[in-house]
Amino acid sequence: MQIALFQPDIPQNTGTILRLCACLDVAAHIIEPAGFPVSDRHFRRAGMDYLDQVTIMRHDSWSRFERWRSDNSYRLILFTTKAVRSYLDFRYGPMDILLFGRESAGVPDDVVTAADARLGIPIKPGLRSLNVAMAAAMALGEALRQTSPATAAQS
Fold first, then answer.
1. What is the pLDDT of residue 51?
2. CA-CA distance, 134 to 142, in Å (whole number)?
3. Comparing C-alpha atoms, which of 31, 39, 48, 5 is closest to residue 136?
4. I want to staple 40 with a disulfide (CB 3.0 to 4.6 A). Which of 11, 23, 57, 141 is the partner?
């Protein structure tokens, strides 16, 4: 299980997601360009000293990330506010990469098309979206619950 961030533009959210990845021992991908330098103080503060504990792979473009993903046979699961299917009604696997788009614009159509699945987190009607770091935590929690060896043994 891995997390990928498509051109993230809020450093605090990215730092928080990387901290989540460090704590849950999940690799993270940043698909460039990011909307901030990794030296940004907000990014460093949100990630705290956890940034040294997470495996971060940076991809300088969507096409390079897609080539890497294809070469390694990972399934791409896009989380989007435009999805019809709930993230709770999906069967995750250990070779999944959970992809989250830019806070300001989501992802372009070619990224949507490339995804193997498009999932959403149901929220109260009339509200736009959750914070991306909160969405990543919810999605990763469910994906790990389903794929954890301890959970599988209890089934």
1. 82
2. 13
3. 5
4. 11
The answer for 84, left when phi > 0, alpha when psi is -120 to 50, beta otherwise, is alpha
Q: Please answer whether residues 62 and 6 qualify as being in contact, where contact means their C-beta atoms are separated by less than 8 angstroms.
A: yes
Q: Is the pLDDT of residue 154 over 60?
A: no
Count how many residues are written for the chain. 155
φ, ψ of residue 87 in degrees (nearest 5): -65, -20
Cis peptide before 33 (omega within 30 of 0): yes
Q: How far is residue 147's CA from residue 94's CA, in Å, rounded to a whole number?
A: 6
Whether the Cβ atoms of residue 4 and residue 146 lie closer than 8 Å to each other: no
Domain boundaries, the chain: 2-154
**How far is the C-alpha of 48 from the C-alpha of 61, rounded, in Å?**
26
The CATH code that applies to domain 2-154 is: 3.40.1280.10
Task: Read off the pLDDT of residues 22-35 as tens digits, 9 standing for 90 and up.
Answer: 999 999 999 999 88
pLDDT tens string 108-146: 999 999 999 999 999 999 998 999 999 999 999 999 999
